[in-house]
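Example record for the data management plan.
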Amino acid sequence: SYAVSRRIEPFYKGGRIQFSRDGKFMFCPCGTRLNIIDVETGALESLQQDEEEDITSFVLSPNDEMLVTGSRALLLKQWSWQEKKCARTWRAVHVAPVASMAFDATSTLLATGGCDSTIKIWDMVKQYCTHNLKGSSGVVHLVEFHPDPSCLQLFSSSMDYRVRVWDLGSGRCLAALEGHFSAVTSLAFTDTHTLLSSGRDKICMVWDLKTGESKRTVPVYESVEAAVLLPEKGDFSQLGVKKQGLHFITAGSKGILKVWEVATAACVYSQPVPFALQEEASERSLTQCLLLPQRNEIVTVSVEHNIVLYDAQTLQLKKQLAGYNDEVLDVKFLGPGDSHIVVATNSPQLKVFELATSHCQILYGHTETVLALDVFRKGLMFVSCAKDKSLRVWRMNKEGRVTCVAQGLGHAHGVGAVSCSRLKESFIVTSSQDCTIKIWNIPDTLTSKAKAALISSPETLHARVTERGHNKDVNSVAVSPNDKLIATGSQDRLAKLWSSAECSLLGVFTGHKRGIWCVQFSPVDQVLATSSADGTLKLWGLRDFSCLKTFEGHDASVLKIIFVSRGTQLLSSGSDGLLKLWTIKTNECVKTLDGHEDKIWGLHSNKQDDMVVTASSDSCITLWKDVTEIEEKEAQAKQEEQIIKEQELSNLLHEKRYLKALGLAISLDRPHTVLMVVKAILKETDGRKHLEENILRLRKDQKEAVLTFLVTWNTNSRNCHEAQAVIETLLKHEAPESLLQYSGIKPAVESLLPYT
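Corresponding structural encoding:
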C-alpha cells in the first residue's frame, strides 16, 4: 500500500515575487493562494484567500511584520504571515483591482495603485485612507515611496509613460518626469536626489530629483523589466566594475543579466548562458530582478516561472526553483541513491529536481517538447527523446550537475518512446510516430568515466538497426531484464516481441480492443505486461505469446504500468487521475489511490522499491512511499486494544460495575452489549431505580448514542421493554428543550412512534 509522502505542485504562475528581509522566505502569488517558500529547503506553506479572490498584488512591509494582499474582489487583507492568520480585511475603495502596492520605509503608510487610475494612501496604524491621488491615466502599475521617510514623496507610473512625483503634504503632483516612450518597469533610488528608471522602450534613465531633469540616458538595446543598483560597498570586479561610480544590472527580454556603468553608458558585463539569445521576447525573458543584501544574492524570475538565485559578486548560480511545470509528460528517479528526479514538462527543456532541497537544474538542448525519458540502471546516465525527431543522452557527475554527452538523429517524426538496456549501458531503443523502432549503440567513450569527463560537445549516435514495427504510432518500448528481448506496444492494438541482437520479430500479442499505451517486462518471470486504452491490463507468456491474465477495473485508458513488490504486484495509472495496485496472484485490485486531477503520464519506482513517483497533466508531481508495514502495525495495535477492552467489559459485568460497563460498551459502539447491560441492571432488585441512576450519570454524547441504539431495540418484541424503560427515564428527567438539542432526535422520534 502507498501513501503520499510529498507533492511538488505549482507555487508560482506569474506576478511579482518578494522576499522577507533576511532573505529566508520567498513570497509567490498563485491564483487565490499566496505561497511562502523556505528558500533553503523548498518547504511550502500558503495563505489561502476565499474562492473568486485571485491575488492581483501584494506587498511585505520593510519590518517584515505585515503582509497586505489585494484581490479581484476589491478587498485588501492584512496578514500576520508567521501565524498564517488574516488580521483584518477592508474594502480597497478602488473601483477596479489594485495593480501595485508599496510600503514606506517606516512600515506605517501603504500606497495602492489601482487599475482605475487612482492612488490611495493608507495609514496602517490608525487604519484609514489618508489620500486619494488622481491624475494618472490608465493602470497605475508602479508605486514607490521616497526612501527618506522625512521627505514625504511618492513616485508612480501609469500607462502614459511618465514618472509622477506626489507631495504627500499637500496631496498634489509636484512633477511628471517625461522621457520614456513605453511603460516604465522599475524605479530605484541611488541617494535622496537621484532616481534610476527602466522601461520597455529599451532605455534606462537617471534623473536629478532636485531639478526634475534627466541626467543621463543609457540605451540598453532590449526591453527592460528591472534595473537594480549595485551597492557601492563590495567587490564587483568580476562583473566588470573597474571604477568608482554608479553601476546597475538590467534584466529583460533577452533573458540575461547585464551590468552597465552610468558615467559612460557602456555595458561592462554580459552573463554567459547555455542557450542561443533571441532578439525578441521569449519564454526565457526575465520579468523581475531583485538584490537580496542579507543573502548577498541576486534573484531573477523568467517568463517560464523559473526563479534563480545568483551570487551577487560573481553571478555564479547558487539555486534554481521551478515555479510552474505545465503538463508533466514523464518523470523518472535519477542519481545513485535516487536523490533526484528528472521531469519532462510540456517544453523543450528538461528539469532535474534535487528532492532534498527542491533545487532545479534546467537542461537545454532539445528544440521541441520532450516526450519521454528513461534512466540506466546505475542512475547516472539517462536518455530523453522529443518531438524534434532526436534523442539525447545526459550524464550526471558526482556534484549532481547534468550535461548532454550524445545525441542521435534519424527518425522521420517525433520520437515518442525510449528504453535503455538493463544490464550494462550498451544500447538504447527508440520508437516513433513514423512506425519504426531503432536500436542505437552507445560507444565506450560515453560509458567510461575517464573518457566521459573529456567530452566537450555531444557526440553523434547512429542507429545500428531500424525496423518498421507497426502500422500505427508506436507508443511504448521496453527492454527485458537480460537485454535479449525488446517489446513494443502500438496504437494498432498489437504488442510485439523482438530480439535485441538483430531486431527480428519473435512473436505478436493480440487481444486488446484498443491501442496499447504501455509495455513492461516482469523483473522475475518470463512475462510481459501491457496496458491499453480499452481500460484493461494483460499479462502474456513470453514462450507461447498467450494471454495469462486480464485485470479489469479502470474506467479509462491505462497509460502506464510498473511492477512493484519484487514483481508480485502491478501499479497502473489511468487517464482519470487514479492509480491502482493489483496483486498478480489473486487478480484483484487491492488499492485505488487518488492523487491527481488529470491524466497520469509518468510513473516510476525507485531501486529500493519503497517509493513511487507519479506525474500528471495537472502540473503536479507526487511522491508516494510504501506504508504497508506501518499500516499492518496500526491494524495490529487496534486489534489488540479491542481485545483488551472486551476483556475489561466482561470483568465489569461480572463485578456488576454497570456505569463503567455502559460507558465502555458505548465507546466500543456495541449496541447489543449495551442492551445486555440494561437487561442485567433491570434484573437486579430495584432495577428501574438503578437504571435511572445509571442513565442519568451518562454524558450527553453517550445518551445520544443510547437513543440511536434503543430505536432498533424498540422494533423487536423481545427488547422493547428495555427500550421503553430507557425512554421513560429520558422523558422524565430531561426537559423537552434539552432533548431537542440531541443530534438525531427527529428521526429517532419518528422511528419510535409507530412501535411505542
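Summary line stored alongside the record: Residues 628-654 form the longest helix (27 residues).
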